[in-house]
Amino acid sequence: MVIDAVAAELGLSLRRRLFRGYEQAQSKHPDRGAIALIKPLTYMNRSGEVLPALLRRVRASSDQMAVVCDQVDLPPGSVRIKRGGSNAGHRGLHSISHCLGDGSFVRIYVGIGRPASRAEVVDHVLSAPEGAEQQRFEAGIARAAAAVLRLFDSPLEEVMSEFNQRGTDSR
Q1: Could you tell me the maximum CA-CA distance found in the chain, to the nearest angstrom?
Q2: How far apart are CA 65 and CA 116, in angstroms?
Q3: pLDDT tens digits for 100-139?
Q4: Is 129:76 a contact under the CB 8 Å cutoff?
Q5: What pairs with residue 68 in β-bridges?
Q6: What distance in Å separates the CA atoms of residue 33 and residue 83, rounded to the nearest whole number?
Q7: Considering only CA atoms, which of 74, 82, 73 is closest in space to residue 151?
Q8: From CA 55, how far away is CA 65, in angstroms rounded?
């Protein structure tokens, strides 16, 4: 959803190339050069499989990429940004780190909150939020999209400082 929002803001359309396991939109940025938005179409726990060949094709490295993912340990709508770190049990991040052989990429986490019961985690992650949680989630999507856009123009540390501030979450 974040990638869709970024593409819309940039006036880009994500397209699937024949037999590719992802949708892609590319553009040129006046300061940063080529920008590629990628949305894997694989299962989350296989999302890294498309990246090695794709990074070679666009002549980029993992330290030039940002990954947007959900995070159950953050309240719905909150956004946190960091470079590298552990995968913290997130299977999508594990797939990406494993397939790239490197975990130094930027991570933009969008909080979805933790369900009341541990047994409900998978259902919670895969289901659409409702009510007030839906509003907070949509605000988090918009905030994460704004963070991605800022990364095109600003140093990571500046963007982290702006978006990681406590009290700026959508609660």
Answers
A1: 48
A2: 34
A3: 998 999 999 998 877 766 657 666 566 677 777 788 889 9
A4: yes
A5: 108
A6: 21
A7: 82
A8: 9
Instruction: Supply φ then ψ for residue 29, to 5 degrees.
Output: -110, 135
Q: What is the pTM of this model?
A: 0.87
The token duo for 160 is: 């982290």
Give the separation between CA 56 and CA 91, rounded to whole angstroms.
23
Q: Token pair for residue 154? A: 């600003």
Q: Which residues of 118-150 are buried (b: 16+ CB within 10 A; e: fewer)?
A: eeeeeebeeeebeeeeeebbbbbbbbbbbbbeb
Cα 141 to the center of its chain, rounded Å: 10
User: Cα separation of 87 and 95, whole Å?
Assistant: 9
Helix 156-163 / helix 131-153 crossing angle, nearest 10 deg: 160
Per the CB < 8 A criterion, the answer to whether 44 and 15 are in contact is no
**Torsion, Cα of 41, 47, 50, 52 (10° steps):** 160
CA 150 to chain centre: 14
